[in-house]
Amino acid sequence: MSQNSLMWSRANTPAELHSILETLACEYPISSTDGEFALKFTRVENSGKSAVHFVGKTIEICYNRTADATRAVANALAGLESDENTEFKTYGIMLDCSRNAVMTVSHFKRWLRQLALMGYNMAMLYTEDTYQLPGEPFFGYKRGPYTLEEMKEIDAYAKSLGIEMIACLQTLGHMEQILQWHAYNEVRDTASVLLVDEAETYTLIDKMLAFWSEAFSSERIHIGMDETHDLGRGKFMDLYGYERGFDIFNRHFVKVEKMCEKYDLRPMIWSDMYFRMSNPTQNYYDLEHEIPQDVIDMIPKNSDLVYWDYYHNDKDFYVNFIEKHRKLGYEPLMGSGLWTWGRLWNDHDQDIKTVKPCLQACRETKLDEVFFTLWGDSGAFCEIDSVLAGLCWAADLAYGGSEDPARLEAQFKAITGGSYKNHLTAARLSEHILEDKNGTQTVGSPFLLWDDPMLGICWDSKRNVDADFSEKAIKLYNSICEDLADQRNDNLAADINHAWLLADFLRMKVAFRRDLLAAYEVGNKIAMSLLADETLPKMITACEAVSDSIRKMWYRYFKPFGLEVLQIRQGGQNLRLKEAQCRIKEYVAGAIDSLPELEEKTTEPANDNVYRCVATGSNHI
User: Fold this and answer.
1) In this structure, is residue 188 part of a structural domain?
2) 187 domain residue, yes or no
3) Is the whole-model pTM more than 0.85?
4) Which is nearest to 398 in space by CA: 86, 45, 11?
5) Which of 158, 303, 439, 460 is the residue whose CA sits 20 to 30 A from 261?
6) So what's the pLDDT on residue 440?
7) What is the C-alpha to C-alpha distance for residues 67 and 53, in angstroms, rounded to an integer?
8) Rounded to an integer, what distance in angstroms lies between the CA atom of residue 413 and that of residue 117?
9) Which residues pair with 435 in a beta bridge?
């Protein structure tokens, strides 16, 4: 890494910064004994103040909070003078550890160091069942669960960096991974929702709260409860008949909130179900229907609501919905999102479109607690360290930065060792190259990766939206490969070579499908023979290179469990490429008269936003 060497004096540095500087020293050139530049810290009464000024060989840092001082240290490492300020009291992240990718303790510690240097002061690990719950052997079974000792270790490490760890779990919905086991029949309402009013449900939740009250030192706890669309419509209805969802939800929330009091915890929940249940389509962002007053009166008062919104591009919408939460009598936390789900690489363009108006609205409404969700839907296949560039950019926004590429490059280099520019180039893997008939932009790369080479479900979907799809896609992937060709060794943050390998395979795959259909439609067996003998062997090699890179990526960041999901996908893709080779050769040789897989078509876009919908149209496990 290219960084300034910094020295600090224990006698002249505020005690609240000692542990931070000592912890950072394990990775960064920060020492209490020697260094090229001497740090001088001055605390000022200015909320969110973070200033850095070079005076000869002394770097003067003014700050108000420890997070602001740590961000100033990052600027000092990068050789940047700065005069920044943020209005946000809490600025944090929520890392999804429930969609198979459970980050190792060692790598998350590295993240904590980087987050602290960017100016973040809160972190959550989203754990549905990926923690070892005493007396519950199926919690985290074959999932790489965190132990109590690991969580305590993370909490202590975060505290040494001035970061608050907040437990983030589920106490109602999104419990399908644990409810799949017969041991939980008694507490199952539906496939993903716990059975409200059942005594065993609250025995289980009490164990959860006991675990997290011991694991983390924060008095705040996120107990989830979002997206329980079928609440009360399974076993609950069989036992008790129909009851209004609002009443079931609030009764459960009240019970769990009182259980939190037992452990001196203040709960927060995702707010969506209050808004969803107020309208017949269960639309979270409905603007027409009001939440009934009797429902509002029953919401527990010793709790907080989290307004999550990763989708809107309009600042005024966020302002409107923040005020809707305040009308419920709550000052919400804002849960925005940096786009890691449904992407092979953090989607920087989508971040810009949604995060900027969100933060503008938070400033306008003086909302001071914000965090970014980093979801891993459908198998957590995003190169997770790619989001470090997004986090660096979002921190710049929070501190009133100008989004200057040169400054961001210097900050990112000093904090992670990687190139910000290269990360943005690789982010073009998520580029929105198409629009559907409603004008909505669509993303194809992850699903083109696993699209069946003979069935072409994702291909059909894209071609039905835009006949020029293949040419646009090939041009995009060629461009990424060309721009990253001499940067493939950049791997101190995310692995740039992984992005190159993905783009290389994707450009081959799109061209193969285009050329195969064109040759088959006119019966050009010579062209088809070339595809089987020359193109497909290269594609198989490229596919295997992607598989190897995924394996390397996974073990770099995560516990072993969950990798099998992506390897099953990649292994299936490899075998289907070999099957395509066999089918084409059989057709060329006259052993079969046709290739029905290539003849069946649809004129409508297919649902291509999940793996199972592009791998096959058949029944599957």
Assistant:
1) no
2) no
3) yes
4) 86
5) 158
6) 54
7) 18
8) 12
9) 441
Contacts of 226-229 spanning 24+ positions with Cβ under 8 A: 226/173, 226/174, 226/269, 226/270, 226/272, 226/273, 226/308, 227/173, 227/174, 227/270, 227/272, 227/273, 228/172, 228/173, 228/192, 228/193, 228/273, 229/276, 229/282
26 vs 346: CA distance, rounded Å: 28
Give the pLDDT score at 605. Answer: 72
Residue 476 lies in a domain: yes
Residue 50 backbone dihedrals phi, psi, to 5 degrees: -145, 100
Q: Tens digit of pLDDT for each residue in 144-154?
A: 999 999 999 99
The tokens for 361 are 């609205």
Structure tokens at 121: 């002061």
- Backbone φ and ψ of 92, nearest 5°: -145, -170
Residue 16's domain comprises 6-85
Tokens of 341: 């789900």
Residues facing 62 on adjacent strands: 42, 51
Strand-pair partners of 434: 442
Out of 18, 52, 85, a domain closes at: 85
Residues of the chain below pLDDT 50: none
Per-residue pLDDT tens digits for 73-120: 999 999 999 999 999 999 999 999 999 999 999 999 999 999 999 999
The tokens for 160 are 């040494």
Residue 132 resides in a domain? no
Contact 450, 575 (CB under 8 A): no
In 169-244, alpha helices (H): 176-179, 199-215, 235-240
Pick from 154, 139, 152, 148: nearest CA to 104 = 154
Residue 239 CB-density burial (10 A; 0-12 exposed, 13-18 middle, 19+ buried): exposed
Q: Which two tokens stand for residue 208?
A: 């959860």
CATH code, 75: 3.30.160.230
- Look at the chain and report how many structural domains it folds into: 2
Per-residue pLDDT, 472 = 92
pLDDT of residue 115: 98
Express the helix, strand and coil content of the chain in percent, nearest 5 each: 50, 15, 40
91 neighbors 370 (Cβ within 8 angstroms): yes
**CATH code for position 555:** 1.20.120.670
CB 31 within 8 A of CB 56: no
* End-of-domain residue from the set 24, 50, 85: 85
